[in-house]
């Protein structure tokens, strides 16, 4: 039976499976955009678009603002820069997650002159590796930034590597109309939050909308509980790998969280944050702990119905004044094609003119420059700015305050494991601690 | 066999036997012109270089890097050697590893026991030249044409807990993608949906090639339809069966795209390939650790490749 009986059979035999699958494979890689090589090609390809115009009248910008609204805002800011300076900015927009995943290859390849990134550990990490340009002299020309923002833009060597553009606080959002209808009051402490949750359940609502399919939203819950129970400094030390995850302090965070899980929306692991936000929008959930960007899921005439409060106090000695408010902004490549143009652009995006454009066009974020004319803010934005202004400490967010390899390969699966099975906290914490030791010593 | 000269060429590859035809073949080889020889050399060399550069060197590099803690940044000179630490970590302190191995095996079993036989069954049905068989053929093959990433998206619309079609139709609130007891089956169904079409087409090609006189002979001998298939057609298609088997094994080993699109291979959908990706690609950049996972996968693949090659080579020798 070894010989094929017909030509068709013979031909079928000739095709190795690896070849038969090749097309589909490469197609897939293109669609998912996850292949490292491919990603580099993609990003590097974008970068080289601007090679042709190195006549010092252009500057290229790598943007991760791929959602329609923020993308539109960036386009308007860049148009403003062109008018003001006569330099032509070329924006290369890459999907937000893809951008993030390929940042290593991107920065080591041919990055754009200026690129968007985040403040915090993630910025300091690349600055320390020599993959970002020093922009200290741009900071000499910037005005309207508090010391907190300057500190968040400073690398380990004391130089600035980052220009903040916008930020958004994390808080508990709710619909005013739903709360008025049922007569709910903002909870001041954990007990009141539990009581409110129980009441919402009786009223047929999922008390706290919850989603963690993407892995990161639950980090917000962990962060805020940790900030309320153990305070800001412990958050910083824990994220820096200096504190043990097996300590009673961390255990208390998870115990408290386990106590709150029953008033969270069930089946969070199959839901995206957008879907959870939709349940709030559709008045099926009572509240939702998320960043200010939750407003994107509400139509313009619903924006006024959206309100928030900061997560209530748990320990009176710690208070409720610390919060997560991640900062987004710009960095410069280590060797931009035109450093002068790149710095001009950074100066512009850090100016109040650029901030004013953002204020006018994006109701879901806050501008970092205090000199901006914020009279165009919605009530929600004004309140958010006040909240951040009154915060004693501002954390960046779990995955922006720690090593990326630790956050994505250890913490995400661990938090999902906890949500799946909130009973075995000690085992989980031991596992995290073992992995942390291995990663932080490498 | 005389109508298949290609096969004869194939048979000519083994070293010349001590028959009288040896001289003839040798002379034919010497008759190759200079150009022919250059072309043949190039045809061997170019693919050899490509395979070496694109397959063997990266594979070797992966094995080497698995002994380091490289984070993907900086020159090679700064890479630190950590020995077998990564393997130790993978097995002992990395919780997703064991579920990943289990899921890969489950994937293999599901494709092998359910999807592949079903694909064969459909091929047999379509081979009967039913009315509209071309339509069915196209419909069943369609998922194979789509990328798995797209398939993941399509099924997302069906499986979403709050807004998905399935829960809306059934009136349930099953968390198809989020419940780790359910999601692997939901994903396997989607993967199988696609795999069935692939197998069907391969098998259909094989069935079309079966000599009709064999069936006629069986029919004349009074064999039933089923026994004709199992006793005559199926054994005749041995080469196709092996291809189908290998395709199934490879598909289950490289399963990745679907779970990656759904939740990056976490929470019940762990696969070794997804773990490799989440460690190596992306911000994490644990190149050393991810390479250790990749090496483990390479070893597992080698077992199946070796099995396949021994089977095929034994076949050729016969």
Describe this structure in words.
The complex is a heterodimer of chains A (442) and B (318). Chain A has 2 domains: 7-167 and 327-371, Periplasmic binding protein-like II (D-Maltodextrin-Binding Protein, domain 2), CATH 3.40.190.10; 170-324 and 399-440, D-Maltodextrin-Binding Protein, domain 2. Helices cover 49% and strands 13% of the residues of chain A. Chain A has helices at residues 7-14, 17-20, 22-32, 36-48, 68-85, 96-101, 103-108, 121-128, 136-141, 147-152, 176-182, 190-202, 217-230, 232-239, 248-260, 273-281, 339-349, 352-361, 379-389, 404-420, 425-440, and strands at 58-63, 88-93, 114-118, 163-167, 170-175, 206-209, 285-291, 306-309, 322-324, 327-332, 366-367, 393-395. In chain A, the strands form 3 sheets. In chain A, strands 2-1-3-10-4-11 form a 6-stranded mixed β-sheet, with helices on both faces. In chain A, strands 6-7-5-8 form a 4-stranded mixed β-sheet. A two-stranded parallel sheet of chain A has the order 9-12. In chain A, strand 1, helix 5 (68-85) and strand 2 (88-93) form a beta-alpha-beta unit. The radius of gyration of chain A is 24 Å and the shape is globular. The N and C termini of chain A lie far apart (56 Å). Residues 15-54 of chain A have low confidence and may be disordered. By secondary structure, chain B is mainly α. In chain B, 72% of the residues lie in helices and 0% in strands. Chain B has 15 helices and no strands. In chain B, helix 4 (85-93) packs across helix 15 (287-317) and helix 14 packs across helix 15 (287-317). The longest helix of chain B has 32 residues, at 34-65. Chain B starts with a helix and ends with a helix. Chains A and B meet through helix 1, helix 2, helix 3, helix 7 and helix 16 of A and helix 4, helix 7, helix 9, helix 12 and helix 13 of B.
